[in-house]
Amino acid sequence: MNHNRNKTIVGKALPNIPWEDKLEGCRDAVWRYSSNPIVPRDLLSTSNSIFNSAVVPFGDGFAGVFRCDDKARHMDIYAGRSKDGITWEIDEERIQWVCDDPEIGQWGYGYDPRVCWLEDRYYVTWCNAYAGWPTIGVGYTYDFETFYQLENAFLPCNRNGVLFPRKINGKYAMLSRPSDRGHTSFGDIYYSESPDMCHWGRHRIVMATTSGWQSTKIGTGPTPIETTEGWLLIYHGVLTSCNGFVYSAGVALLDLDRPWKVMYRTVPYIISPQESYELTGDTPNVVFPCAALCDAATGRIAIYYGAADTVTCLAFAQVDELIGFVKSNSRA
Amino acid sequence: MNHNRNKTIVGKALPNIPWEDKLEGCRDAVWRYSSNPIVPRDLLSTSNSIFNSAVVPFGDGFAGVFRCDDKARHMDIYAGRSKDGITWEIDEERIQWVCDDPEIGQWGYGYDPRVCWLEDRYYVTWCNAYAGWPTIGVGYTYDFETFYQLENAFLPCNRNGVLFPRKINGKYAMLSRPSDRGHTSFGDIYYSESPDMCHWGRHRIVMATTSGWQSTKIGTGPTPIETTEGWLLIYHGVLTSCNGFVYSAGVALLDLDRPWKVMYRTVPYIISPQESYELTGDTPNVVFPCAALCDAATGRIAIYYGAADTVTCLAFAQVDELIGFVKSNSRA
Amino acid sequence: MNHNRNKTIVGKALPNIPWEDKLEGCRDAVWRYSSNPIVPRDLLSTSNSIFNSAVVPFGDGFAGVFRCDDKARHMDIYAGRSKDGITWEIDEERIQWVCDDPEIGQWGYGYDPRVCWLEDRYYVTWCNAYAGWPTIGVGYTYDFETFYQLENAFLPCNRNGVLFPRKINGKYAMLSRPSDRGHTSFGDIYYSESPDMCHWGRHRIVMATTSGWQSTKIGTGPTPIETTEGWLLIYHGVLTSCNGFVYSAGVALLDLDRPWKVMYRTVPYIISPQESYELTGDTPNVVFPCAALCDAATGRIAIYYGAADTVTCLAFAQVDELIGFVKSNSRA
Amino acid sequence: MNHNRNKTIVGKALPNIPWEDKLEGCRDAVWRYSSNPIVPRDLLSTSNSIFNSAVVPFGDGFAGVFRCDDKARHMDIYAGRSKDGITWEIDEERIQWVCDDPEIGQWGYGYDPRVCWLEDRYYVTWCNAYAGWPTIGVGYTYDFETFYQLENAFLPCNRNGVLFPRKINGKYAMLSRPSDRGHTSFGDIYYSESPDMCHWGRHRIVMATTSGWQSTKIGTGPTPIETTEGWLLIYHGVLTSCNGFVYSAGVALLDLDRPWKVMYRTVPYIISPQESYELTGDTPNVVFPCAALCDAATGRIAIYYGAADTVTCLAFAQVDELIGFVKSNSRA
Amino acid sequence: MNHNRNKTIVGKALPNIPWEDKLEGCRDAVWRYSSNPIVPRDLLSTSNSIFNSAVVPFGDGFAGVFRCDDKARHMDIYAGRSKDGITWEIDEERIQWVCDDPEIGQWGYGYDPRVCWLEDRYYVTWCNAYAGWPTIGVGYTYDFETFYQLENAFLPCNRNGVLFPRKINGKYAMLSRPSDRGHTSFGDIYYSESPDMCHWGRHRIVMATTSGWQSTKIGTGPTPIETTEGWLLIYHGVLTSCNGFVYSAGVALLDLDRPWKVMYRTVPYIISPQESYELTGDTPNVVFPCAALCDAATGRIAIYYGAADTVTCLAFAQVDELIGFVKSNSRA
Amino acid sequence: MNHNRNKTIVGKALPNIPWEDKLEGCRDAVWRYSSNPIVPRDLLSTSNSIFNSAVVPFGDGFAGVFRCDDKARHMDIYAGRSKDGITWEIDEERIQWVCDDPEIGQWGYGYDPRVCWLEDRYYVTWCNAYAGWPTIGVGYTYDFETFYQLENAFLPCNRNGVLFPRKINGKYAMLSRPSDRGHTSFGDIYYSESPDMCHWGRHRIVMATTSGWQSTKIGTGPTPIETTEGWLLIYHGVLTSCNGFVYSAGVALLDLDRPWKVMYRTVPYIISPQESYELTGDTPNVVFPCAALCDAATGRIAIYYGAADTVTCLAFAQVDELIGFVKSNSRA
Q1: DSSP track, A272-322
Q2: Which subunits sit against F, judged by 3+ Cβ pairs under 8 A?
Q3: Considering chain A, what is the average pLDDT of its residues?
Q4: Which end of chain F is less crowded, N or C, counting CB atoms within 10 A of the terminal residue's CB?
C-alpha cells in the first residue's frame, strides 16, 4: 500500500476516491462535482430529504451514515453502502442502536452524523435527542450492520460533535458546538478530551465567530484530516441576512499536538450557496460539509456536503492547494 | 345522474373533472399536474399574484373565487369562470359585496377564499378585514355575479374558515384557525356550529399541531369531502426552519357525525414544496390547498393549491388510495 | 325599595354599599379605600394571591367569585361571602362546575372572573382554559353554592369577557378582548350578541387602543353600569414601559341601545399604580378593576380591583362626578 | 448638444445610453434587459457578489462605483468603467479614499454607493462604517482614479443617502433613511440641507411607509431625475412576508423647489422580484435600484439595480410613460 | 462676584445653591438629599409624574423646564420657577413654542429637557416628536416666559441632546445619543458641531457602552461642567437585567478643546437605584440626572435627577472629590 | 459529638446553627428570619450587592463564599467568615485562584457560588466565565485562605453547578442547569458523574420545568442534604410574568443511590418573593437559595438565600416537617 506519496496527508492511499478534475479557468480551491446532487431527496420511498451525511472507505468500497428526514420531517440516520462513493444504496430502515442503558438507548431523533475510523472501529457521532433536546450521541460499528450506542458525550444542547481520528496526548478528542434549544443564533467550536469515550473534560475554546460569512455561528464539518502541516479542519459558518441564515464553509489548520490552537483560518469561504440545488430546497442557502475522503497518495480530497437541507453533493480539492489557500488567506 | 358509482365519495359525478393520470413509478398518493402552474401570476393586468383560490362545479363548467394580490400587494378576491377547470378567466374587478350593514360591508382586504355549495347556494368564506384585522368573512352567491355578504363568523383574529357542505346535527358547521395579528406562529383547527349562519358556538378542538411538517400551525384547506369513511379533510401544516415557514399539506379523516373527532391523520405530508414554482416566489416554500373537485363516479379528486404565494396549481388523487394512505400512515 | 333617587344609575338602591368619603383636597374622581388591601394574599391557607375578583349584592350582604392563585401559582376561582363587602370569607375549595358536556366541563384553570345578575340568576364569566388555551368560560349560579357551566362563548384565545346586565335588542350581549397565547401585546374591546347564551355573533369593535396608558391593550373591567347617560364602562389599559406592562383604568360611556358606539372615553386614567401594594407584588404596577357595586339611591360606586396581581382592593366614586369626568376629559 | 428635445427630462442628451425596446405585449412601465444580469457575481477574482451599484456618464463612456462583497462577505466599494454601460471592468482593488482626518478616513466597510454629478465633480455617497455602525459617507472624484473623502453627513445609523444633482434653494440637498443597527424593520425617507457639504440640517420628512410592498421601510434609489414635472424619484420599498423581506421599487414625483413635498407616488410597484436571478441568491427576493441614466433627447431611462444582493441588472423606462404611470397610479 | 475661588469649576459663584452636607460615614462621592423627592408626581393637578427635568440659576433664584407627563401618560415640558431650587412652582400649561415654520412648530410630544445658558440666552434641548418620532428639539428663552423654537438638530431617532455651555473651536457643540423607535437597546454618546445652531456635522464618537451598569446604552445627563481638569460629564448608563432596564449614573472627564476625547471615565457608577422612590414607580429602577447647579466659589454641585420616571430628586457632590473619584476609578 | 439524634439528617450535629423559632400561627414549612437581610448590599466599601452566597460550618464558626457585585456591576466571589452565621466579615479582595493552567486560571467573572465539604476539603463551584461565557467553575480550599482552581466541569453555557457531598456509586456527582448566553428562558436540572473531578459524563435528566412558579426554568440551590428519606434538594424555579421573571423555591426528594430519580417534588413553592427586600432591588421578585446549614441533632435547617439580587437573607425549616411537606404536596 502506498502511504504518503504526496506526503502531506498523513494516512492511507485511497485510489478509488471519487474524483473529477478542476475545470480550466476555475479560480477556486474547491470545486463542485458536475453531476451534483449525488443523492436525490427521494432515494428512499419514505424520504423527504437526504443530506448532511458522512461516508468512509469500507471494504473495497465505501460505507456511510446518512441523515434521511422522512415525509413527516422526522430526522433519523441510516446506514448506506456504495461501490464508487457516488451511487449509494441506503437501508430502508433507520439504524437500530444496541445499548446497555435503556434511558440512553431510547430513540428520539438523530441528525447530521459523522463517521470516524478510530483505532479499531468506526465511531459515529450525531446530534441525538436526550430528554427531548439535542446533544452529541456516540456509538460505533465494525461492519455498518450492527451499531452499538455509548453514553452521550455532553449535556444538551450541543451539535456537530466530531471526533479526531486518533488520540491526542493519550486521550480521545472531540470538537463540538454548544448551542441552545432552537435555531441557535450563536455558536463557537470547542475541544474536549476523554480518557474512556464516556467522561469528557478539559474543554478548550478553539475558534469563535468572526465576521461576514462566519459571523453568526460556526461548527466543525468532516473529521479533521491529519496533514504534515497540522489538522486540516473544514468547518461551516453562518451569516444572518435579512432573510435568514446562509451556510458557507471554510478551512482552518490546527496545531497537531494542541488542536485547540488555530494556526491558520480562512477569511474567505471556500464554498457558499450558489447553485440552484444549494439556493433552493427545504432550507434555502445552505452548504454543509459533513465528511471528506482523502487519498494520501495523490492529495485528493472529496468533500461530501448537504445542500439546502435537501440533497447530498460532492466537491473536490487538492490538499496542497487547500493548505496553500488557508495559509495565504488567513488574517495576519 | 350517476351518484356514487365509486361508492366512496358521497356526492355527484363530475365527468369533466380536470384530470391527468399518475405517472408510472410515482409512489405518491398525490401527484402534480404536468403543466403547473395553471394560473400565472400576471393573468390580470393588475395582478402581482393569483393563488390560494377556490373553485366549484358551476353550470356545465366551473366557477371560482380567486385571491389576486395587485401590484400594491393589496389582497382582494375576484370571481372567475372556466370551461375545463384549468384555463380560467378572472374578472378584472374584485367582488363587490352586497351587504345590509355598512360597518360589516366596508371593505378592507380579503384573501384565501373558500367556496362551498350548501343547500341552495354557493357560500364563500374568506379571510376578511374587520376593524383592520383578519377574521372569517361569510357571504354567498347564486350565480358568481352577485355576491351577498353576511356577518363575520368570529372575532378577529381568525383565518382559514371552511364550511362543511351540509348541516351537521341540524346546524351549520365551520372549521377555523384562530390566530394573532401577524405571521402567527401557532394555530390549531377548531369546529364551531351555528343555527343561523350568524351566531356561532359550541366550539370544539379538532386537531392541534404535532411535530415535523405540522409543528408550527395547521389549518383547513378545501371544503371537507364527505365519504363513506368519514369527512376527508385536506389541511396545511407549517414547519419553521431557520429560514422561515415551510407549508406542506396532509390528510385527516373526521367522524361523520362528530367531525371534531379525528379518526385518522397522516403523519407524513401528502405534498410539500419541491418544484421550482413552489420553492421560489413571493413566499418561498409554500403549497397551500384551498379547493378540491371530486367525481363521485370515479373517485377522482382534483386539488387546487397556491404555490409560493404566487401562482395557482393543480394536483390529483384517487379517493380510495388517499383514504388508504391516511389510514396506513396514521399514528397508531 | 328606593329606585333611582339619584336618578342617574338605573338600578336598585344598595344602602349597605361599602363606602368611605373622599378626603378633603383630593382632586381625583376615584379615590382609594384607606384600609387597602381588603383581601390579603394569604387569606386561604393555600393561596399565593387573591385578586381580580368579582362581587355582587347577595341576600342581605354580598357574594363573589375570587381569583385565588395557589402556591403552585395555579389559577382557580373560588366562591366567597361577606356581610359588609369588605371582610370576606372565601371557600377553601375552588368552584366545582356542574356541566353536561365532559369535554367542556374538564377543568384546566380559571381566572379573572366577573359576576353579573341577569334576569333570574348570577352569571359568571371568566378566563377559562379550553384545549389548553384561554377563552371565555360562562356559567351561572342561583346561590353561590351550586354552579352550572355552559359552553365557552368564543374560540381561544380570549380574555376579559363581561356580560351586560340585561339583554340588548333582545339578545344577550358580551364584551371581550380577543388575544393570543402569551402575554398578549395587543387587545381591543369587542361586542358580541347571542340569542341563547350559547351561539355568539354580530361582533362589533367597541374601542381600540389609543396612546399613553391605553396604548398596548385595553379590556373591560366590571359589568357595565346602566345610567341615564349611557352604559358606564370602567376598563383597564396597558402601557409598555422599558420595564414591562403598566395597568391603569379609565372610563367610557357607551350608547344604551348600541353599546358598541362610544360616546365618551377618558383620555386620562382614573386610577393608576401609585401605592406600594400596587407598585410591588407578583406583577408590579397593576391596577385591574373587575367589579363595581352601585347604589342607585346615592350614586355611590364601589370599585373592586386587583393590585399587583397579588391582593384585592377597593376604590370609590360618585356616579355623577365620574360621568362628568369622562365627559369633560374625552378627546374632542 | 441636444438639450431637452424630449423636453421632459431636464438635462443632457445621452445618445449612447444602454437600451432595449419594450417587448410587444408588455404592459409594464418598466421592463428588464433580456441579458440580465449584466455584472455576474464573480467578475472579480475575489468577489462573492456585485450589486447595488451606481453608474454615470463619463468621458465617451461610463464610469461607476460598485458594491463588491468579497468571499469573506466583507462589503467594499470599487471603481469601474464601461464603454457601453453594459460590459464593465471593475478595479481589483477597492477605492482608497484620500481624507484629511484620520478618524473619518479610517476604513471599516462601505456599501450601496450612489454617484451624482454636482457642479464640477462626481460626488459619491455610500453606507459607511463609522464607530462600527452604518452612516452616510460622502466623497468626490473628478476622474474615478482619485477619490477624496469628506465628513460623514449624519450620525449613525443611516443608509441610502442620495444627493440631489443641483443645489436646492442655494443649499446642497440629500435624501436619506435613518435606521438602526441591524436589519432595520422601519425606515422613512427624509430630506436634509447643507450650506457646505459638511453640516446638515432643516431635516424634513418626505415619505413614510404605507402598506403592501412599501409597508416595512422605504429608501431612495438613484439620484433624483429632474423633469419638467418635478423630481422623478425611484425608490425601494420592503414588505415583510413570513419568510423575510421582499424588496420592490416604485416611483414618486417631488416638488421641484420643495422636494420634501410629494406630488405623486405609485401605489403599485414598478418592478418586484420575479426572475430567478431576483428570487434566489445571497438574499432572495430583492430588486434594489441605485442608479439611472437618462437621455434627455429621447426620454429614455436605464435603471441599474441589484438583484438578490448578488448581481447587477438593468431595466428600462421611457420618462413620459413613467410619469404618466405615477400620476395615474397615485393614491387620490 | 466671586469667580473661581475654588478654582476648579470655571464659572460663577452660586451662593444660594441648594445644599446639604454629606453624612458622617458616607463613603460615596455623591449623596442624596434627605428630603427627596423634591417634586412630587402630583404637583400639577393634571400631572401623573414630574421627572427628568432641568434647572438653571435665574434672577435671584432658579428657573427650569420640567417633564410633566399627564394622566393620559402624554409627555410634555413645562416651565417652572423656584426661590431655593428645592420648592418649585410649575406652570399649569405646557410651554407654547414660537416657531417660524409651522411644520417644525407643530407639537407632538416633548420630554427629558435640558437647559443651557449659552452666550446670551437659555437654550432648551429636549426629545421632540418630529414626524411622530423622537429627535432633538432646540429652542431658547430669555425669560422663561416666551420660548422660541429652532430647527431640530438631527434626523430621528435621537435622544438626550445636550449643548456645551460655550462654543468649542468657534462652533456650537452638542452631545447626543442616536437611537431607534422603541425602548432602544443600544446607544452611545456622539459629539456634533454647528456654525449656526441649525446645520450640524463633524460628528464624532465620544463614548460607547462598556459593561456592567453601562452595558446596554449610555447618554449624557446635565450640561457639561467646565473645570480646569476638563469637561465634567455626568451621564447615565443602562444595564439589562432579566427584569428590564436599570438606569444608573457615572462621570467622565472630556478634553477641553476636543471634547470627543475621553480622558477619564468611571468604571463604577456614582449613583444607582437604591431608595424606594428609585426602586418603584412608573418605571422601576431608574436614576436619570438631567441638570446640575455649580457653585464655583465652593465647588459644590447639586444634581437634579428623575427617579423611577415618577418624581424629581436632588443629590450633591463636591467638584474636587468628584474629579478625584473619576480619576482614581477610571479603567487604567 | 451527637450524630443523628434526630435520625433524619445523615450528618453531624451543628449546635450553633443560626436559628429562630417559627412564629405562632405561621402555616408555612419555611419561615424567614425576622432580622432579614443579614448581609446588606454595601457591607464592602466597593459592593453594590451581596447575594446568592454559600456558607458552611468552619472551625468553631462558619465560613463562606459570597457573590459581591461591585459598583461597576462586575460579578466576583469573595471569602467570608462568621462566628454565628448571621454577622459576616467578607474580605475586601476577591478570591485569587491558584491554577496550573493559565488559560483556565484567567479570571473573567464569577457568581452564584456553592460550597460543599467533600472527603477532605471544601469544594467551591460557581458560575465561571470561560471564553467569555458562563460555565461551571470548580475549585477547593482547606482553609478559606488559599483557593485552588480545577478544570471547568462542562462546556459553556451552564449555571448552578452543585456537587453532592459524597461520591455516588464511586463517582463524584454534580447537578447543573445547561443554559444559553443571555437571560436564559429555559432550564432543567441534570446529573453528571466524574471519576476524577475533571472529566464528566453519564449525564442524566433529573427534573424538567412543569408549570406555575417552576414553568420557565429550574436550578439547584444548596448542596443536597442527605437524609434517611433520600437527598433533600432545595431548588429554585422561575415563572415569567408580563413584567419579567419571578424566582421562587421548592423542594424535592431524590433517590439516595440514583439521585437522578425524583421520588417527590413540591407542586407549591416553599418560599416566594413577598417581603419588600425580595420585591424590590436590582432584580425585583427574586428569592434564590444557595446554601443550607443542617443540625443532625435537632433536624434544624438554616437556608441562605439571595433576595432581589441585592442582599443575603436567612430562612428556617425543620427537616421532618419539610420532608412531610414535600411528600404531601407532590403530584400524585
Answers
A1: -S-SHHHHSSSSSSBEEEEEEEEETTTTEEEEEEEETTTEEEEEEEEHHHH
A2: A, C, E
A3: 96
A4: C
Please say whether the beta carbons of B109 and B129 come within 8 A: yes
Q: Is the peptide bond before F222 cis (omega within 30 degrees of 0)?
A: no
Q: Are E291 and E304 a contacting pair, CB within 8 Å?
A: yes
Q: What are phi and psi of F75, to 5 degrees?
A: -100, 125
List chain B residues with CB under 8 Å of A282. 241, 246, 273, 285
Q: Quote the minimal CA–CA distance from F270 to chain C in Å.
A: 8
Give the F window 152-191 contacts with A, CB below 8 Å. 152-158, 176, 178, 180-181, 184, 186, 188, 190
A202-257: per-residue pLDDT in tens?
999 999 999 999 999 999 999 999 999 999 999 999 999 999 999 999 999 999 99
Backbone angles phi, psi at B296, to 5 degrees: -65, -25
Q: Which residues partner with E201 through β-bridges?
A: D199, E193
Please state whether the peptide bond connecting residue C224 to the residue before it is cis, i.e. omega within 30 degrees of 0: no
Closest CA to F253 of F145, F331, F310, F182: F331
Bridge-based pairing state of the strands C147-149 and C97-98: parallel
ipTM: 0.95
> How far apart are alpha carbons F86 and B14 in whole angstroms?
87
Q: Quick check: E86 contacting F, CB < 8 Å?
A: no
Distance CA D249, CA D246 (A): 10
- Cβ(E321)–Cβ(E231) below 8 Å: no
Closest-CA residue of F relative to C75 is F212
- By the 10 Å C-beta count (0-12 exposed, 13-18 middle, 19+ buried), B321 is classed as middle
- Give kind and range of the element (H or E) at residue C153: none
F187-190 long-range contacts (CB < 8 A, ≥24 apart) are F187/F159, F187/F216, F187/F217, F187/F218, F187/F219, F187/F238, F188/A131, F188/F217, F188/F218, F189/F218, F189/F219, F189/F220, F189/F235, F190/A131, F190/A155, F190/A156
pLDDT in tens, E262-290: 999 999 999 999 999 999 999 999 999 99
How far apart are the C-alpha atoms of D232 and D253, rounded to whole Å? Answer: 5
Interchain pair D202, E200: CB under 8 A: no
Could you give the 3-state DSSP secondary structure of residue D196? coil
Could you tell me which chain F residue has the CA closest to the CA of E28?
F45
> Residue F62: is its pLDDT beyond 60?
yes
pLDDT at D2: 44
Q: Is the pLDDT of residue A305 over 50?
A: yes
Contact C233, C297 (CB under 8 A): no
> Number of C-alpha atoms within 13 angstroms, CB side, residue D24?
0
Contacts of F328 (CB under 8 A, 6+ apart): none
Instruction: Yes or no: say if A119 and A70 are a contact pair by the CB < 8 Å rule.
Output: no
Minimal Cα–Cα distance from B213 to chain A, Å?
A: 6
Distance in angstroms (rounded) separating the CA atoms of residues A86 and A313: 9
Do F and A touch (≥3 CB pairs < 8 Å)?
yes
C-alpha cell at F239: 415563572
Residue A199 to residue F204, Cβ atoms within 8 A: no
> Does residue C2 register a pLDDT over 60?
no
> Which has the closest alpha carbon to C257: C158, C180, C167, C144?
C167
Of F240, F246, F268, the CB nearest to C72: F268
Q: Cα(D285)–Cα(E173) distance, rounded to whole angstroms?
A: 44
Could you tell me which chain A residue has the CA closest to the CA of F197?
A201
**pLDDT tens figures, D39-61:** 999 999 999 999 999 999 999 99
Q: Which chains touch C (3 or more CB pairs under 8 A)?
A: B, E, F
